[in-house]
Automatic annotation (TrEMBL):
The name this protein goes by in its record: Cytochrome P450
Organism per entry: Croceicoccus marinus
Gene3D superfamilies the record matches: Cytochrome P450
InterPro entries attached to this UniProt entry: Cyt_P450 (IPR001128), Cyt_P450_B (IPR002397), Cyt_P450_sf (IPR036396)
Keywords: Plasmid
Family note: Belongs to the cytochrome P450 family.
UniProt keyword Ion transport, yes or no: no
Gene Ontology MF terms: heme binding; iron ion binding; monooxygenase activity; oxidoreductase activity, acting on paired donors, with incorporation or reduction of molecular oxygen
Pfam families, per database record: p450
Highest rank taxon of the organism: Bacteria
Keyword DNA-binding included in the entry's annotation: no
């Protein structure tokens, strides 16, 4: 990612300028959340010159407001990384109203509750199988040996592709989660497209019952999907559903490894697992989005100009004491209904895979805690994070007796 810095535009008052690179926040390698918390302060909107220059919302209410106001804040840009949006052109993620709605409605149908629930045996089988392999070893590097594997397997099953393809897709997933600089974003997109192409063509020509077929079989305002639209949608699902879930698994495990009492509570009261999944997802949100301003607007005493970029990070909302009481504390019985957390976004682009991700989290808690004894972060190791639009743990050594 670039950290190209630019000079400060005229609409940015000097006291709003911070030094903050969203791809390398200060101390982010050892604690992603603490790094973001350094931005909380007297202003609700600050501006950084890193990555081409952009605003950052630093409090909960404003973060949520920007996320929901799709009329002022467009989704077209995708990221503060210059050029990334033009390369990926995701459908429905990078579409605005009115174009967005028919595509989103169609994708949502593909993720209907009945279809998601039908995935449970697949999710359970792959989770159980991996846990059974890891258990006798007394420990593992959780990210590579568990977190990166399950979402790929689930995705392949969803799109009706043999799960042996896992080996082919895994390096791509790894580049997405832990980019090592060997691939440009164009190469990553092309590799994903090359992988997806035969399936997209086949599902368009003769639909089956898999996720892509279900979505592509529904016309867009009375006409069939074009190949290019289909490809952009399938690309969105691939990129949207892998590293986010990897990141979620990492955070849940790290929390439990550091909080044996919470492991004990869930073992004693497994009926709390669905609520625990929701609360852990609230407490450890790692997705940030970029919006481009499409009309001048005054906010927090400054004017955001048309064309400005605003970066919105869900931890600024979920971990703001003004939005959630005692937000850093994990309480499995917390009432989450008054304010919906933004781990899955807010407004018209809220995650279409939210139900699937939640199911993966619940099954993970159930299978992992039933099979693995009390576990902890392996002595002498420290978890490391990678920041970015989807922050994630990159190394998490766990041990059990
Ligand atoms: C824990 C896991 C996940 C997290 C934290 C997450 C987070 C998000 C967030 C924050 C957004 C909103 C983006 C925005 O406002 O610009 C979003 C949208 C989206 N997500 Fe997820 N996601 C997860 C899992 C998944 C899965 C499993 C899939 C599919 C297989 C998926 C597919 C999508 C798609 C297609 C969109 C775009 C929706 C639209 O623009 O209408 N996500 N996700």
């Amino acid at each position: 990612m670039t950290s190209e810095t630019v000079s400060c535009p005229a609409n940015v008052p000097a006291d709003r300028v911070v030094e903050f690179d969203v791809y390398a926040p200060p101390g982010g390698e050892s604690d992603y959340f603490a790094a973001w918390a350094t931005l909380r302060g007297k202003h609700r909107l600050v501006w950084t010159s890193a990555n081409g220059g952009h605003w950052i919302a630093t409090d909960g209410e404003l973060t949520r407001t920007i996320w929901k106001d799709a009329e002022t804040f467009s989704n077209e840009a995708l990221a503060v990384t210059p050029g990334l949006g033009e390369v990926m052109r995701f459908i429905p993620l990078q579409q605005d109203a009115p174009e967005h709605k028919p595509f989103r409605t169609t994708v949502m149908k593909g993720f209907g509750n009945n279809h998601v629930m039908a995935m449970e045996p697949v999710i359970r089988a792959v989770t159980r199988d991996l846990v059974a392999q890891l258990r006798p070893r007394g420990g593992c590097e959780f990210m590579q040996e568990f977190a990166e594997i399950v979402p790929i397997h689930v995705f392949l099953s969803l799109i009706g592709v043999p799960t042996e393809d896992r080996a082919r897709l895994r390096p791509l997933g790894q580049q997405l989660t832990r980019p090592d600089g060997t691939m440009t974003v164009e190469q990553l997109r092309d590799a994903a497209d090359d992988y997806l192409r035969p399936y997209v063509e086949e599902r368009l020509a003769s639909p089956g019952s898999d996720l892509f077929s279900r979505i592509l079989a529904v016309p867009i305002e009375g006409r069939p999907w074009t190949f290019e639209e289909a490809r952009r949608m399938c690309r969105n699902l691939l990129f949207g559903g892998l590293d986010t879930v990897v990141s979620m698994f990492g955070n849940i495990s790290l929390h439990l490894a550091r909080h044996p009492a919470d492991q004990g509570l869930l073992r004693e009261r497994p009926e709390l697992m669905p609520q625990a999944a929701d609360e852990l997802m609230r407490r450890y949100p790692m997705v940030s989005v970029t919006r481009n301003v499409v009309r001048d607007i005054d906010l927090d005493g400054v004017t955001l100009k048309t064309g400005d970029l605003v970066y919105v990070n869900s931890s600024m909302h979920n971990l703001d004491p003004a939005c959630f009481e005692d937000p850093l504390t994990v309480d499995f019985e917390r009432n989450l209904s008054p304010v919906r957390h933004t781990t899955m976004g807010a407004g018209p682009h809220r995650c279409v895979g939210a139900g699937l991700a939640r199911l993966e989290a619940i099954v993970f808690l159930d299978e992992w805690l039933s099979a693995i004894p009390a576990f902890r972060v392996r002595e002498g190791t420290s978890p490391t994070y990678r920041a970015g639009n989807v922050g994630a743990l990159t190394d998490l050594q766990l041990a059990w007796d």
